[in-house]
Amino acid sequence: MLKSNLLKLLGIGCVCLAYAACKMPAVTQKTENKSVPGSFNNSTDTTNLGTVKWKSYFTDPNLAALIDTALKNNQELNITLQEIAISQNEITARKGEYLPFVGVRAGAGVEKVGRYTSQGAGDATTEIKPGKEMPNPLPDFLIGAYATWEADIWHKLHNAKKAAVERYLASIEGRNFVITSLIAEIANSYYELLALDNQLKIVDSNITIQSNALEVVKQQKEAARVTELAVRKFEAEVLNTKSLQYGIQQQITETENRINFLLGRFPQPIARDDNSLNAALPATIQAGIPSQLLSNRPDIKQAELEMSAAKLDIQVAKAKFYPSVGISAGVGWNAFSPTYLFRTPESLLYSLAGELVAPLVNRNAIKAEYINANARQIQAVYNYERTIVNAYAEVANQVSKIGNLAKSYDLKSQQVNALTESISISNDLFKNARADYMEVLLTQRDALESKFELVETKMQQMKAMVNIYQALGGGWN
């Protein structure tokens, strides 16, 4: 009889499984494309500066001290570390779902039933003591243990744990990406600060030159060689140049405060060496080959891990169409009086049950979850491919930018030299009445602008070196 019942249950389970399999929505998963171009600039050299540690790449001790402080105190980075802890706890939670749940239970209660009921009439006589009725109201005391367990025959719970592991690893890569971005942002702000310092020095130097020229013009006016208009024009130019100081000083303050914010501290002066802006740049940029980005860039690895987790989510959602097998058991003591509570075997109780549960009707929620899981997997693939394309473009842009900036800097250096010499020439010509004051003014203005542009170009060069390092995935290791 028992064997016959088991066979019936097994048959029902098979029918449920076949029904679930036949009625499952049809979805199409997307496979990622990992192909990348063979090189950035027709070079097959695999030497990659992205693998260099940041302390070896950024040799300025002041900059290194700032980065080191930021890696300890930056709030965004510390928030990311807590996200890693949350992801790690999620693994523990998912692992606990496929292990047995065991608990203990204790309770006490009282029940009053009607005398003229089947239970009340039955309680009128008891075999505990012949002729003595069961207590009414009837106390109830219970002490026991219970356990439940779902047999993970479709790997639903194990796949959920694996997905949690992938997301935990993705959160670590997210932290690494924050580190690379943080280092690059600090370095870029630092070089911007150095450029502002240099521009401020240029302004100070130019004020001296213009003030000297103003004195010459005043002497020329006294000698009736120029008019008051020339004097006023030179005075206006000196005042305009002096006003530039305050704009630059405000930019310096804001840049310092931005660096301090990244370091997680209140505004304070930033130690720096102005001459660091003129540090020699490497003759060649070793960008390696594009395929190295797949292992060097934290954002690419993060996207890949999230894609793996999304694939596992599909398996988890798919398993919910299949029957689940659960086992429950309990053991303990139950009696109406503490006196009889631990009398064995009279007060002993136990139970053991198994169940097979399968969704048959109104499975819309399960279908929607399955379709959504597939859609999220496709999203993850597109995000992964987009991240790869973006990474390649960033490196290619910076490689090209470094080359073009080097050529631009050489030409601007020649322009600055020519205009610096023209200041002396224009002053001499003006003294000898061979040039008017407007030529002197325009020459000084052009020289100032060219020096500003030269410093700006140098800053862009230093930033490009920072950005290529970040684009190649440098800094987190």
TrEMBL record:
Keywords: Lipoprotein, Membrane, Palmitate, Signal, Transmembrane, Transmembrane beta strand. It is found in: Cell membrane. It is a lipid-anchor. The keyword Signal applies. It comes from the Bacteria. InterPro entries: MdtP/NodT-like, OMP_efflux. GO terms for molecular function: efflux transmembrane transporter activity. Residues 1-20 form the signal peptide. Pfam families: OEP. One of its GO terms (cellular component) is plasma membrane. PANTHER family: OUTER MEMBRANE CATION EFFLUX PROTEIN, OUTER MEMBRANE PROTEIN-RELATED. Belongs to the outer membrane factor (OMF) (TC 1.B.17) family. This is RND transporter. It comes from Niastella yeongjuensis.
